[in-house]
Amino acid sequence: MLRRFVAVAVLAAVLVPSAANAQYVMMPDSTNNRLVLFDPQTGALVNNNLFGLAGGTPIHAMQVGNEIWVSEQVGDRISRWAFDGSPLGAITGGLDNIRGMGLIDGKVYVTNAGTANGAPGAAIVSFDPAGNPLGFFTTPQAPSPFGILAHQGGMLVSSSQPNDDIHRYSLSGVSQGTFHNSTSLNFVEQMAYKANGNVLAATFSSPAAVYELDVNTGAIVSSFTASGARGVYQLSNGNILWTNNSGVFVYDIGAGVSTQVYTGGGRYLDFLLIPEPGSLVLLSLIGLVALRRR
User: Fold this and answer.
1) Of 36, 150, 155, 177, whose Cβ has the fewest other Cβ atoms within 10 Å?
2) What pTM value is reported for the model?
C-alpha cells in the first residue's frame, strides 16, 4: 500500500503546476529585435530584453510547448527559441508576409498574405508542434489576414482589407460567415478575449481604437481610442494592455486613460508560462526519500 501511495506522489510532482512558475505577457519588439516581458497582473515592464531575436520584423511571439515561436513578416519564417534564448532553428518555405498566429487543438495556425517562397497567398497555413507542415486553406473573405483567435470550435481571422474586418472560419477553412464588418473598424490586427468572454480587436487605421465585440454577434459593445493599435491583451486586474509602433500602453478602464509603459516597436501580445524546474525536482526528491524508507 505504501508503494502505491509513493508512486502517485511522484507522478503528481510531474503533473501539478508549481506556484513558482513564472508567468508573463510577452511581445516581440520589431524595432529593436528583442523579446520583452510584462506583468500579466498590472502590465508593468518586467524585462526589456529577455533575449535578442533574429530580425525579419517579428510580429507575434507565441508559446508552443517548451518553445517560443516568433513569426517574422519580412523574414518569411517562424523562428523557434528556447526559454533562455537559445535558437532552435526555424520553419521556412511556403511562407510569405506572415503576421499573427494561433494555437488551436494542438495545431499552430499562421496568417500568410504573399505568394513568394511557394506560399499560397491569402491563407492560413498550419503546422504541428514539431514544425511539420499540415497544409493550408485560403481566406478570400480576409484577403490580407493579420490575426487568428480560436472561436466557438473554429477561428476568427482579422484582415487589413475588405471583404470583412473579421471573418469566421472552421478549422478546416470553411467560411462560417461574417463576424464583424463595418466602417467603425479599419485594418484589424490582433484579437484577444476579454474576461467577460467578449472579443477585443486592435484596429490600426482611423478610427484607430481597441474595440470590444459581442462574442456571439460581433456587434460593437464599447471602444477606446488607441492610435495605430496593433496588439491587445486584457490584464488580470481588468485593464487593457495594447501596443502600437511607439511601444506598449496600459489602458485604465476606470480612469479612461492610457499610460505608456514601454518604448519600442510594439507588436502582438501573448501569455508566457515558464515552468520552475526547481520545485518539481524538490517534490521528486521527496518521493525518492519515501521510496528509500519503504
Assistant:
1) 177
2) 0.88
